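Single-chain item
Fold in token form
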Amino acid sequence: MTTQDLAAIAKRYFAAWEARDVDAIVALHTPDSQFQAHGRGAAVHGREALRREFAHVFELYPGFGFDERRLLFGNGHWVLDWTLTFQRPGEDRRGVHALDVVEVASDGLVTRKDTFFDFAELKAAFGGGAA
């Protein structure tokens, strides 16, 4: 898989997240794909579990958005350095630094997505102050 192939897959994947389209996101994963938001719980496996988890992300972070900091491509994977943005009703927009490692199969579907958050920023974004 070339860097151009990965870039095209990533573009579709980011568009699905930007649209907050859980079905489109899940369709870009293999049936046995794994997702883990490290520090927030155990990994989930399979499209139905991913569907529930990704829907929960959009509930947890109303007005979900993201700002790309860096996007690096490797052999069958990409690393996205990004800021998760969200806005609860009546509050200012907030951001949390995150890093994704996304593995892609030769058929172009995501096999694994690991997300790591800056937990001091996450705590502050939810009104708990910096750790």
